[in-house]
Design the sequence.
């Protein structure tokens, strides 16, 4: 009886053992995700066919061949069973990512247009932005920024701004943005630039290289920068390194026309000159925007830029012109320390629903400029009072002002441009 039972068990297990002895075989191959590459081309690169043995290294080998081809951004190879009754029959599933693609329409001989999907080349990732800005005393700057997206993966960009006119500049800038971690953005770049200093009517020729890291958390941004400058100014060449940190707090929803918001920033730089001396420089900038009657806004700004030593002329902050003291020419005053203040009532003339805003304003600007070692209270204050006509739209701002300098003349100042 026992012997018969053993014999029955042996007979029952014999077919399964024979089937397992045959080994696993690729019975079917499925390819998914190939919106651009034909299935035949995928199988040719994978170098696998139905009927081939499925071994312990098949998944690894097929995936490696596909990745090594360099034709796909992502590859995944999976094992599935083709039959419940026969576990030796294997379905090989190949999932690929062709990468960015676009749709093109091809006209057939009969006149019919047929859509086809083609892989995007590196030229499809190129972006262009205009450079156009100007200010009295500095002239009009115009040019183009060419950018190549995703050069270091997602959220990265290689930019090459090239401008002429008031500021002649050629630069290469590489930046990478991160979704998480301690750093939100990293930037490195190099530039050559010529800009005329309006205070001294001398060209400032500069070569610069820098690296910067930023962390953004809501309205707060913290950054650190290291840079090297080589400056030729008035036939003298200087070199210095900059090591700085800055913080900014910005609650503006519309930077072009903010309302009920503040923008506060503070920066510190250590300037290390090639000759061996060092200077500590600070910059403070506070702006407040309060909504008043209807869509009008009262804007107030206070700034201070200064150093604890005598700065070279090409590094001295300037006072005068559209940027901080209207009613005076750009760079009318300069020094190691510049303090400014302004109050302006902006009144839009167009509807809040308009794409752009056109308006007028009344303002008063004041400021002082003096050298290190002198006292603020001993300085003569310079004040300009006037009005302006302005226009702002997404990424663009332009303003013309007429202001009278107390104890001086009446002057027209202008400034603006694209602000990407």
Sequence:
């Amino acid at each position: 009886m026992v012997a018969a039972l053993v014999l029955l068990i042996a007979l029952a297990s014999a077919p399964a053992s024979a089937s397992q002895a045959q080994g696993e075989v690729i019975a079917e191959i499925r390819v998914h995700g190939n919106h651009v590459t034909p299935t035949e081309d995928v199988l040719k690169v994978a170098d696998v066919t139905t009927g081939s043995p499925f071994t312990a290294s098949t998944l690894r080998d097929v995936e490696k061949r596909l990745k090594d081809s360099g034709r796909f951004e992502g590859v995944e190879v999976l094992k599935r069973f083709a039959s419940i009754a026969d576990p030796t029959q294997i379905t090989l599933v190949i999932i690929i990512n062709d990468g960015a693609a676009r749709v093109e329409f091809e006209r057939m001989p009969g006149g019919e247009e047929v859509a086809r999907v083609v892989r995007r080349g590196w030229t499809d990732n190129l972006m262009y932005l205009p450079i156009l800005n100007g200010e009295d005393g500095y002239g009009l700057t115009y040019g183009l920024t060419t950018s190549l997206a995703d050069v270091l993966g997602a959220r990265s960009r290689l930019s090459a701004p090239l401008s002429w006119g008031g500021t002649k500049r050629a630069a290469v800038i590489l930046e990478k943005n991160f979704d998480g971690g301690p750093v939100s953005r990293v930037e490195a770049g190099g530039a050559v630039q010529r800009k005329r200093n309006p205070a001294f009517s001398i060209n400032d020729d500069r070569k610069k290289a820098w690296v910067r890291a930023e962390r953004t958390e809501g309205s707060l941004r913290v950054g650190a920068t290291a840079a090297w400058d080589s400056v030729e100014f008035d036939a003298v060449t200087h070199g210095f390194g900059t090591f700085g940190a800055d913080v900014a707090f910005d609650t503006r929803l519309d930077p072009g026309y903010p309302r009920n918001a503040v923008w506060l920033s503070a920066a510190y730089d250590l300037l290390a000159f090639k000759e061996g001396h060092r200077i500590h420089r600070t910059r403070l900038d506070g702006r407040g925007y309060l909504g008043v009657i209807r869509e009008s806004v009262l804007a107030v700004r206070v700034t201070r830029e200064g150093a604890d030593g005598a700065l070279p002329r090409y590094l001295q902050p300037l006072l005068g012109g559209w940027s901080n003291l209207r009613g005076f020419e750009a760079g009318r005053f300069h020094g190691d320390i510049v303090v400014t203040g302004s109050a302006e009532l902006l009144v839009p003339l167009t509807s809040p629903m308009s794409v752009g805003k056109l308006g007028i304003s009344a303002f008063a600007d004041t400021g002082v400029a003096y050298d290190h070692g002198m006292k603020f209270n001993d300085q003569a204050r310079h004040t300009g009072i006037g009005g302006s006509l302005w226009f702002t739209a997404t990424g663009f701002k332009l303003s013309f002002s007429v202001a009278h300098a107390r104890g001086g003349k009446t002057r027209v100042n202008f400034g603006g441009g694209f602000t990407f």
Observations:
- The radius of gyration is 34 Å.
- The mean pLDDT is 89.
- Residues 123-418 form a domain with the Porin fold (CATH 2.40.160.50).
- The chain has two domains: 20-97, 123-418.
